[in-house]
Batch of 2 targets.
Target 1
Amino acid sequence: MSTIDYYYSVRSVYAYFGSRRIAALAKRFGRTLRHRPMDLSRVVPAAGSLPFAQRSATLRNYQFGRELERWSEWLELPVIVEPKHHYGDRDLPSGLILAAQKQGCDADALSDAILTALWRDDRDIADRGVLTEIAASAGIDAAPLLERALAPDTMAEFAACTDEAIRMGVLGSPTYGVDGELFYGQDRLMFVERQLERPFKVAT
């Protein structure tokens, strides 16, 4: 198969940590990264997990506190642990990525630029002006994409991405689909690489 299905939230810090590496793996193995931005507020409960706000303070502080600091140092990717723009609209930035993908723009670069703008620079990725600047930094003209980002067909595709993630049993963001195998978490990218090089044995 010629694609890697990339399920993620545009507001996911762990998608940010894995963004450049999954794009590099796709390029190295001649695969197309098929962006499937999704609504985590639907996917996480459907998988039987607690929404972020309902998790214990101990777990939140570990997973989204100290762990972020360690991953940031390990990957040499700067991160703001508690950006003020963490929460907000998902529709516009998700729709922008889907419109870019549909129109043949570099969705990989745009997606990475959006994630970086949030987690490194604490920018408001739901603001049209900010998104225009982010797209320009990736060499993309945002104007025609913004016209399509919230169009009914684009929003229907965003909903379909979420429905697909639920149907496939996606646990969270990011999850990578390679030839029928799902790999949850940017800390599983070594398994993605191995699957691309030499597929794992079929599950029994």
Target 2
Amino acid sequence: MVRTNALGMGDRFERLADRVGTFIDPPPDRSTIPTVVITAEPSASAAPTPTVTLAPSASPTPSPTALVRAPVDVKLVEDHEEVFASQITDKDCAVAGTQMVLAVLGLGDTSDAFQTEIHDRIGEWESLEDSHNGGWGPAAVSLALKDYGAPGYEIRAYDSYTDALRDSAIAITEMRQPVVMFPWWGAHTWVMTGYRADADPTLFEDAAISGAYILDPWYPRVSSIWGPSDGPGNFEDLSELERNWPVGTGRDGWTRPGGVYPDRDNKFVVLIPTIPLDA
């Protein structure tokens, strides 16, 4: 029954097993990285004004350089196969996602041995606040990234799907580091390594993001709900992103069963890099 998942009974059996496991060995009730709630897109007046740096010999009153609006296609990774790691088990998406971020940043590899090493350290990072079922949540991923040399990944929860995608694109441009998404109602992990837009979102507040380059650790599996996963570095357009990161369905964003997450429920949760690696 678990193997065939007949009529969804396999999924229900696994959820029951998780609840029993949590009762026997509950996650530690300790503080962890907070979730920063973003309630609205910044207004135009709050947007930074680009400045022109003067050379020492330049005139103190130069004419400002006009901004040129042009489409952008931003990629942190040219060969996504080189940094891709499929999750070893059906429950290791966050582990594989963490591993792939580290691989992109040159801080780890894509071997099964490295994924197993990360998996086995969950006791150092898990907390009841982060995951009511124990194991991996966004805070655990952030703490793992920090311990392996990538500090500063902040948990952000957005009311607006477009704001979450826009801030992710800005972070990728400014920090040159991937963003971690939590699609499938918060039950899965994707790594965003780039995007396309009709203008540079760091310069134009109205820049429209048309999609994202994604590493999906579920590949090459097929989900009974979401269908077949896409290969490493596939460009997901807005309709595909919204299908996997539900928008306007009445069950938007983060809707994990088994408890209440006040700062995440019905919001779009991402891990955003905030510190340059060479800082």
